[in-house]
Amino acid sequence: MTPRKTSDPRDLFPGALEMMILQSVRRQPMHGYALVQHIKQRSNDLLQVEEGSLYPALQRLLKAGLLKADWQTSATNRRVRVYKITPAGVKHLEHEVSRFEQMLEGISLVLTPAES
C-alpha cells in the first residue's frame, strides 16, 4: 500500500493483502498487474496496491507454498508470471478469512454503543 506520513484509511492490517491476493487468484489465475487492477476495481478504488507491496507479498506466498506461478504470454504478447492458488493456499485462506471475520465481529461489538 502507499506509505503515508499520516494515518491513511487505505492502509491495511498485516495479512490483508495476502488474503486479497489468495481470494483473487482463487477466482481466476492472474498476473501481477491484473491483480493490482482487480483489487482496485473490487474495492471501488478504495484500495491501491503498489508494486512495492504486491511483489514481496507474492514472493512470500510462493515461498510458503500457498501460490504457484507459471510463465505465460499475455494478450499484449508480453511474458508474464501467472499466479494460481494451491490446495494449501485454499485451506490457509479459509482459515484466515474465518479469523478475520471473528476479529471484525469483536471490533464491531466494542464499537457498538452500549444500551443504557
Explain what the structure shows.
With 116 residues, the protein is of the alpha+beta class. It has one domain (16-111): Arc Repressor Mutant, subunit A, CATH 1.10.10.10. It is 53% helix and 14% strand. The protein is built from four helices and three strands. The protein has helices spanning 16-27, 32-42, 51-63, 87-111, and strands at 30-31, 67-73, 79-85. A three-stranded antiparallel beta sheet has the order 1-3-2. A hairpin with a 5-residue loop joins strand 2 and strand 3. Helix 1 crosses helix 4 (87-111). The relative contact order is 0.16. Residues 2-7 have low confidence and may be disordered.
Q: What fraction of the residues are assigned to beta strands by DSSP?
A: 5-15%
Distance between the termini: 41 Å
Task: Estimate the helix proportion, in percent.
Answer: 40-55%
Q: CATH fold name, please?
A: Arc Repressor Mutant, subunit A
Task: Please identify which CATH superfamily we are dealing with.
Answer: Winged helix-like DNA-binding domain superfamily/Winged helix DNA-binding domain
Low-confidence stretches: 2-7
Number of helices: 4
Principal-axes shape call = elongated
Question: Which class best fits the helix and strand makeup?
Answer: alpha+beta
Identify the CATH class: Mainly Alpha
Domain module count: 1
Main pleated-sheet profile: 3 strands, antiparallel
SSE order, one letter for each helix or strand: HEHHEEH
> What is the number of E strands?
3
Architecture per CATH nomenclature, i.e. the level-2 architecture: Orthogonal Bundle
How would you state the average pLDDT, rounded?
Answer: 89
Radius of gyration: 16 Å
How are strands sequenced across the largest beta sheet?
Answer: 1-3-2
